[in-house]
Amino acid sequence: MKTQTRSIDMVQLLSILRAIAGQLDFRAVISAVSTEIRSLLAHDHLDVALLSGDRTLVVAYETGLHTEWDADTTATKPVESSPIRDLFAARVDHIVTDDAQTDSRFHFDGAFSQPIFSAGLRSRLHVPLKVEGR
């Protein structure tokens, strides 16, 4: 997989911040961010996964393509069943793959990885967003 590096400039960052300013609905915020970053990173699916305070449970909210990971279709799930559990546990600082269907990091005993196949997901980029230093 060929990796391209592109940094975000201040104008792009401000446009993202303006798009979410004043939004009270969480899904509206995710949708606005998705729209704003499309010129930086082409995508058909964006999700935000939230960890519980004790970091044992995760719930995801999606925009664009929706899967079984979305909060509307499933309750919280244990972090240990997440295909990106290594990211949640801070064992890695990002996950990039060109084919999640064949990447062994996404598939292990007990993994809730069926959405990868049912939605035909392939290229994946996962990065953490820290809030209040956590």
Describe it.
With 134 residues, the protein is an alpha+beta fold. Helix content is 24%, strand content 17%. The protein has 4 helices and 5 strands. The protein has helices spanning 10-20, 26-37, 85-88, 114-118, and strands spanning 45-51, 57-64, 77-78, 95-97, 124-126. The protein has a 3-stranded antiparallel sheet with strand order 1-2-3. Strands 4-5 form a two-stranded antiparallel sheet. Helix 1 (10-20) packs antiparallel against helix 2 (26-37).
Query: Widest sheet: strand order?
Result: 1-2-3
Number of strands: 5
How much of the sequence lies in strands comes to 15-25%
> Segments where pLDDT lies below 50 for 5+ residues?
none
Rg over CA atoms, rounded to whole Å, is 15 Å
Q: What fraction, in percent, of the residue positions are helical?
A: 10-25%
Outline of the structure:
With 134 residues, this protein is an alpha+beta fold.
List the SSEs and their pairings.
Blueprint (H helix, E strand, L loop, with lengths): L9 H11 L5 H12 L7 E7 L5 E8 L12 E2 L6 H4 L6 E3 L16 H5 L5 E3 L8
Antiparallel strand pairs: 1-2, 2-3, 4-5
Quick tags:
two-stranded antiparallel sheet, globular, single chain, three-stranded antiparallel beta sheet, 5 strands, 24% helix
